[in-house]
């Protein structure tokens, strides 16, 4: 009998802003099990947040806050010299904003996943990680904290007693220390869809990923991130869902 596996499939959504439309949330949402919704700092606005929450609830998708740096121009992907206290404040602020819309629509906040540079910095900076984890815990200790697998952020959440999810990425390459290759470096993104899917299958079933240095790195995959803003995002979401199902991998949001 073949062993079965279960994994959450998450996507960053609600990234449109005013007259600027990004992604195809209506089509992506039925293909994933949890949504990380931008909270207005790096992307999104109040109207987009409300609309995305409604769409996710209609599809039965778990709702997550996706707080980032206050950097619309850089889409939250530029490092900022914030203190742990500032990171705490901006995290509380954004979780609160999205939580308001979720409550207004009759939903429940399921998780929090930092965005972009805030996420990557918290993966390796214990002080920043602890501030973000504390912000999540103090706003709602029942939600799941998503962080890069085996990172400082996940460890900070576990230390506080939060439920945590070790996250892996379908379309990103890895370094031998388990971190993601910086987007500023060559080959940070995996553009071949079949290669990206096979990387995910191996991470889920074998607990390993091949780093850019050619070394296998042990990795835990509770949730897999796909991006909704790429040129072929919908096509890739359909493909990864199909292949994972064929490989006896059940797609399901993490239980609270």
TrEMBL record:
Q: Does the keyword Transmembrane helix apply?
A: no
Its EC top class is: hydrolase
Q: So what does this thing catalyse?
A: 5-oxo-L-proline + ATP + 2 H2O = L-glutamate + ADP + phosphate + H(+)
Q: Which Gene3D superfamilies match?
A: Glycoside hydrolase/deacetylase (3.20.20.370)
A Pfam family per the record: LamB_YcsF
The UniProt entry's GO biological process terms, in alphabetical order, are: carbohydrate metabolic process
Q: Which GO terms describe its molecular function?
A: 5-oxoprolinase (ATP-hydrolyzing) activity; ATP binding
The protein's UniProt keywords, in alphabetical order, are: ATP-binding, Hydrolase, Nucleotide-binding
- Subunit: Forms a complex composed of PxpA, PxpB and PxpC.
Free-text function comment from the UniProt entry: Catalyzes the cleavage of 5-oxoproline to form L-glutamate coupled to the hydrolysis of ATP to ADP and inorganic phosphate.
Q: Mind telling me which NCBIfam families this protein's record contains?
A: PRK05406.1-2, PRK05406.1-3, PRK05406.1-5
What family is this protein classified in? Belongs to the LamB/PxpA family.
Q: What is the official name of this protein in its record?
A: 5-oxoprolinase subunit A
